[in-house]
Write a structure and sequence with these properties.
CATH architecture: Alpha-Beta Barrel
CATH topology: TIM Barrel
CATH superfamily: Glycosidases
Shape: globular
Number of helices: 14
Structural class: alpha/beta
Helix content: 40-55%
Number of strands: 16
Strand order of the largest sheet: 5-2-1-16-13-12
Radius of gyration: 20 Å
Distance between the termini: 21 Å
């Protein structure tokens, strides 16, 4: 029986030179295929600019592509090189509903100030340095949807991916005049001052869930085999802080794959969250959609080989058939140490990327694959 797993990695423009040339892209795809990966998630929407020529951005903001890439199409180059070595490719809309970082809204809100998200004091919504578009606004939602649809219509991709900013909005937001009026028309009163009021949280989260439902439907209308992948934060925190109701997403069947960002720097912390996910959020039927996000590298931090191997082994023991790593450059540090650890250990046998049908086969395949992994995981 063939091994079927999600073995993915995020490709960033931050702290990485992969996108600097097609030659660099080709070298990265070679390393990933040789290591045993089968899917890449390249960023295509970052710093409020695209990494492909976007008619949506040109028409709305007069900027077709990130100026660094004028004259190129990094997404098209990535697709060529990924296909050459047999990798699936799912573009990652990293910036989501963010507008800028420490830039007072940046170019998007300079052109469209009415798209700004607002906190209770009426200030531009800012959290952890990021300024935000109003993700509850129908025009803003249509803009993000247009970005996504032009990718799936114009490029040979296997799906699209949102993350902890798509669909999302800091729970401090929702106090713009339009949202306040919508709430008042439904309840006969203004939204509560307490932005973490339970009913107020749920009402706003439901708007984002309806947006995801529309995104899912419209992507599938282009091609039913396209995957909708989401990389939100961990369930309760994501709901309280960013209005991401991942439980509702799963119950309503709005995601084909989900990658909660379990960015913990020790194995025991990672294990505790995996236990919570497996025991409370996922069933045998939905567990196959789960491939947790694992922090491999950020700043000066790099995961240890032991932690890396423990996490993958525990995933398989729990019936979790895959993971996605943040981010690619962690594989290359110290003369490709972690790439070698994976290739010589849990990724020594090639694995096929699951089809949508396989993602929905449920407990039967989970049990078979788990028994196979108990034999293979002797590292």
């Amino acid at each position: 029986m063939k091994t079927v797993e999600i073995r993915g990695v995020w490709l960033t423009t931050t702290d990485s030179q992969v996108f600097h040339s097609q030659q660099n892209i080709a070298a990265a795809m070679n390393l990933l295929a040789e290591t045993g990966f089968n899917v890449v998630f390249p960023v295509v929407w970052n710093k409020a600019m695209t990494l492909y020529p976007s008619s949506t951005m040109r028409q709305t903001f007069g900027i077709e592509i990130d100026p660094v890439y004028i004259g190129r199409d990094p997404l098209a180059e990535m697709i060529v090189e990924a296909r050459r070595v047999g990798l699936k490719i799912i573009p990652w809309f990293e910036y989501g509903f963010a507008s800028s970082y420490n830039s007072n809204g940046g170019l998007l809100l300079a052109k469209k100030p009415e798209w700004a998200a607002r906190d209770y004091q009426g200030n531009l919504l800012t959290k952890n340095g990021f300024e935000w578009l109003n993700a509850l606004n129908s025009e803003v939602q249509q803009f993000l949807l247009n970005l996504i649809l032009e990718v799936v219509k114009n490029y040979d991709v296997d799906g699209v991916q949102g993350d902890d900013r798509l669909p999302a909005l800091p729970s401090e937001g929702g106090y713009d005049p339009g949202t306040v009026e919508l709430y008042r028309s439904s309840f006969g009163r203004n939204p509560p001052n307490n932005f973490k009021d339970k009913q107020w949280l749920q009402w706003r989260a439901d708007i984002l869930t309806r947006f995801l439902a529309r995104l899912y439907q419209e992507v599938k209308a282009v091609n039913p085999s396209l995957l909708v992948s989401m990389a939100p934060n961990i369930q309760n925190w994501a709901f309280q802080e960013y209005l991401q109701d991942t439980s509702a997403w799963m119950k309503q069947g709005l995601v084909d794959m989900i990658h909660p960002l379990i960015y913990r720097r020790d194995f025991n912390s990672y294990k505790r969250i995996i236990d919570q996910l497996v025991n409370t959020q996922f069933t045998d039927m939905t567990l196959l959609k789960l491939a947790p996000g694992i922090l491999m590298k950020v700043g000066s931090y790099q995961i240890s080989p032991d932690h890396l191997l423990q996490a993958i082994k525990y995933n398989r023991a729990c019936g979790i058939l895959g993971e996605v790593f943040f981010f690619y450059e962690g594989l290359r540090d110290n003369n490709n140490t972690l790439a070698k650890v994976l290739h010589q250990g849990p990724y020594v046998q090639p694995a096929s990327f699951p089809s949508i049908a396989e993602l929905n086969q449920g407990s039967e395949r989970k049990q078979k694959s788990s028994s196979i992994w108990q034999r293979l995981l002797r590292f």
